[in-house]
Amino acid sequence: MKHIPSSPESDEQYGGAIAWMAKNSVAANLLMVIFLVGGLIMSRQIKQEVFPEFTTDIVQITVPYPGASPAEVEQGIVLSIEDVVRGLEGVKRVTSSAVEGSGMVIVELISRSNEFKLFQDIKNEVDRITSFPEDAEQPVVSLIDSKNKVISLIVSGDQSERALRELAERMRDELLQRPGITLVELGLTPPLEIAVEISQED
């Protein structure tokens, strides 16, 4: 069998990373082991969540305008607020509504922004507006943080409502002491009442 030597042109044709790995099998195997070990190490550090963490902070601006029609509220209040907040850095979306006697502007903030600083900037800009009608009241600017429900616990049993409420309050206090839990609220519980009975003579 006659051996035909390879020409320089054929070597150049099959050059590249695959050809280098074919010629250096030890280095290719070592590189593969490094990738596998690194992937296993990083997989243990990946954060896993049932509900992805996200924030949708919202600044709500409400201005009462007694006796005004929706058109007057839009022209005198809503448009003025929209003009000053749209240009602020960190504002994602601005939506507004005008009803009889009141106007509301919702400013949605971009995630990862400093919501407290942006809230103060929005409040300062709204306070500087001098074109509000004379009958309009002072604007109310508030920061609304969204909260996601993670889990619901139901306490039931052959007990009185007072005993179940005390048990639920004790569970709430114990859960709040655990790290990572910031808010626990009681729901579906009737409000506490005090009954005062007075005799008919008194």
Structure description:
The protein has 202 residues and is of the alpha+beta class. The protein is 38% helix and 14% strand. It has helices at residues 8-13, 17-23, 25-43, 70-85, 115-127, 161-176, and strands at 58-64, 91-99, 102-109, 140-144. Strands 2-3-1-4 form a four-stranded antiparallel β-sheet. Strand 2 (91-99) and strand 3 (102-109) form a beta hairpin. The protein is flat.
Describe this structure in a few short sentences.
The protein has 202 residues and is an alpha+beta fold.
Could you give the topology of this structure?
Elements: H1 8-13, H2 17-23, H3 25-43, E1 58-64, H4 70-85, E2 91-99, E3 102-109, H5 115-127, E4 140-144, H6 161-176
Antiparallel strand pairs: 1-3, 1-4, 2-3
Could you tell me the number of beta strands? 4
Instruction: Give the SSE order as H and E letters.
Output: HHHEHEEHEH
**Order of strands in the sheet with the most strands?**
2-3-1-4
How helical, in percent, are the residues? 25-40%
Overall geometry: flat
Structural class designation: alpha+beta
Give the N-terminus to C-terminus distance in angstroms.
126 Å
* Largest sheet report: 4 strands, antiparallel
Number of helices: 6
